[in-house]
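Issue 218. Parser rejects a valid record. Input:
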Amino acid sequence: MIANLEIEINSNRGPERNLVAAILQRAWADLDNADRFIQADSYKWITSPDQGKPWTFFWACETLDLDPIALRKFVFEYSFVQRHQKLSPYRYKRKEL
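Output the parser choked on:
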């Protein structure tokens, strides 16, 4: 489970589907990685327009019966909110006169 997104990994689904689920989970986690190169690589993979080619974001979603457009939107909206919530206590601090 990653935050509010649950991609079930269990032995009943088969090792291939579990691998694909783990790849999606890792890509999302890498969006918040401190290393900018890892972030960029994850962003590039998730936003890639390639469809149907093995090991692309779209292919991974289709393998797991997920809607790639809806999942992509959710991942970026959630990541954006999380990043701004981390900053919010300082961002909205009242300035003293």
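Fixed in the parser; the record now loads. Residues 87-95 have pLDDT under 50 and may be disordered.
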